[in-house]
User: What shape does this take?
Amino acid sequence: MQRLIYFVSLFIVIGSCGIPPQKSFTKALAIDSVINTKGVFAASAPLIKQFGVHQALLNDTSFIIYAVRPYGLMLTNLSTWKQRVVSFPDSPFKHSDYEVTLNDSLIYILDITSRRLNTYLLSPERITRISQRNIAGLMRGKNFNQYQQPTFEVAEPYIYVRYRTTEPKNNFLAATACIVGRDNGSGEFTVVDSILHHPKRYRNGKSYYTDSYIKSVDDSLLLYGFSFFDSIYLYNRNSKQFMKKGVLSNVSDFLDYDQSKNMDLAYVRMYSVTNSNNFKFVYNKNTKNILVLRGMKTEKITDTKKIEYFCLNGNLQVMRDSILTHPIHPEFCFAYKQGFLLFTNTLENAYYYRLR
Assistant: This one.
């Protein structure tokens, strides 16, 4: 419920903006072109929001992918804008509690209700089910379904899952933010490690939301960041060490949460809607650049949300930091050629940004 309320609030207030005087910026990304989407999304079937919007490289072609009812995926070719629907061979969305991640042609659906990880092979023509594995051993004393950003990442035979505990101590958070499970070869995952750490402000209750982001960026590295914190990390899965750490901004925009007002719904809503948050992380494999989009804090609920972005290089140094001058759709933001493609909130146009 938190995720739904927060997403709706974010979607309502995202828009164009001006630069607040207390912030200093580096240099803006260049707009290479504005692309007309030829109205393809207006004719699409209604998407299933919980599945999310994803990007995948299939047969060397980049596709935008989202779920449509009852059990299909809409594939949109980013070059031709042609669309087609491919159907699942079963019913992967029959339970309401699930999380999804894509690794190009592999679809992983973490079904929290049945405690199963379902794996599918995706092509432009069909979806083929590969396996169903048991994750019950990872879930004891843990709660997975609490986040805005993707909850888990798979790098066979390992699964990396962000989690909350079921105990109220330290804001329902353990010291480590991610458990590591390994497929034991018989279709069952067992816990082999726990890695990464929550920020102190998450564990001491200074942030009402405790979302974080995890994404595999190559064969050995995990990108790890937070929705309500300025640090971002690269973690080496093989050496089990942090390789690099970056800081998005030298001025923190994140509001401290007053826990004494937990029962004050007006306060919670005000805090949720007006607070800053990093709501999108995008990695471009071609350039090794990372784009982080942040909804900046506002004074009032009715204020238009300003969108700041940070473009980082492979060493997690901020190369570009500025403010978007047009409204965007919070889900339709993708890696594209040598930069990033950000769709307007109507999905009629997309802005191609790149470093120059």
In short: The first strand starts at residue 30 and ends at 36.
